[in-house]
Amino acid sequence: MRRVYGVLLVGLLMFIPTSGLADEAMKNPFAGDAAAITEGGFLFQAVCSGYCHVQADADRDGKCPNLFDCEWVNGSGTDEEMFRVVSDGVPKTEMVGFAGQLPDDMIWQIVAYVRDASKCESDADVAAAGATPDTATSAAAMPAHQ
After folding, report:
1. Residues 143, 79: Cα–Cα separation, whole Å
2. Residue 90 and residue 92: Cα distance in Å, rounded?
3. Burial profile 42-61: b = 16 or more Cβ within 10 angstroms, e = fewer
4. Of 70, 73, 59, which is closest to residue 115 (Cα–Cα)?
5. How far apart are CA 85 and CA 64, in angstroms?
6. By the 8 A CB rule, do 59 and 71 touch?
7. What distances in angstroms separate CA 103 from CA 43, 86, 107, 108, 110, one per listed residue?
8. pTM for the full predicted model
9. 104 membership: H or E segment, kind and range
């Protein structure tokens, strides 16, 4: 009997529309949220700048790339890509993935902070301008992360 219910459940799940769910899941739920951005700043200071990256207003170079200079080497420069890099890390670099170590909400708050502190253009502005990591040359052209 359990097998029959399991088969029915799987069959029903196949017919549930999923278009748009992945897109919604990858939008930063904290974009523009001042309290979350502040929390993201504290998280960035504790998790990211303690070992590798410098703060937004640092007057020194860090061990790892500056995340506030609006240059993006890994990914397209969207919030989704920043989230992916922080979550999964970057193979063959010192950038480890934080998925499983930090809840997704904390990673999104860090992304919101980096986006806000860098003063780079938003995902929509970057897409509208047709900018890519290869074509971006000015500090305002791309979201932060290397």
Report:
1. 8
2. 6
3. ebbeebbbeeebbbbeeeee
4. 70
5. 14
6. no
7. 12, 11, 7, 9, 11
8. 0.66
9. helix 104-118
Distance, in Å, from the CA atom of 6 to the CA atom of 24, rounded to the nearest integer, reads: 28
C-alpha to C-alpha distance for 2 and 9, rounded to whole angstroms: 10
- What confidence tens digit (pLDDT) does each residue in 46-99 have? 999 877 888 887 777 777 888 888 787 787 778 999 999 999 999 999 899 999
d(C-alpha 33, C-alpha 24), whole Å: 17
What domains appear along the chain, each with residue ranges and CATH number?
Answer: 31-146 (1.10.760.10)
By the 8 A CB rule, do 141 and 131 touch?
yes
Q: Which long-range contacts (CB under 8 A, 24 or more apart) does 21-26 make?
A: 26/79, 26/80, 26/83
